[in-house]
Design brief:
Length: 99
């Protein structure tokens, strides 16, 4: 009886997982009812994209980006090389207090 119950439970779980992964496909009815919208203005791109990847992060294959990322913090470091945040020199500047 246990084997039958486990097999049935496993079959239900697999069926549920396959149904949960099915993406919704737009139908002709929903595509026709959506109003036409004007194209939105694209966000301003930075003037210089040299050394950046498509997502805007620095490309670490370039020497200039590696040296900029390797800047040492002002205060002491932990054994793993990260800045020790117990010291004032490593803490970020405090934001101005709101009244």
């Amino acid at each position: 009886m246990k084997k039958i119950f486990l097999a049935f439970t496993a079959m239900l779980c697999m069926a549920g997982a396959t149904l949960a992964q099915a993406p919704k496909k737009p139908t002709a009815k929903t595509a026709a009812t959506k109003p036409a919208t004007a194209k939105k203005a694209e966000p301003a791109k930075p003037k210089s994209t040299a050394g950046l990847k498509k997502d805007g992060t620095p490309d670490m294959r370039l020497k200039a980006n590696k040296t900029a990322a390797a800047a040492k913090p002002a205060g002491p470091l932990k054994k793993d090389g990260t800045p020790d945040m117990r010291f004032k020199a490593n803490k970020p500047a405090a934001a101005p207090k709101k009244k």
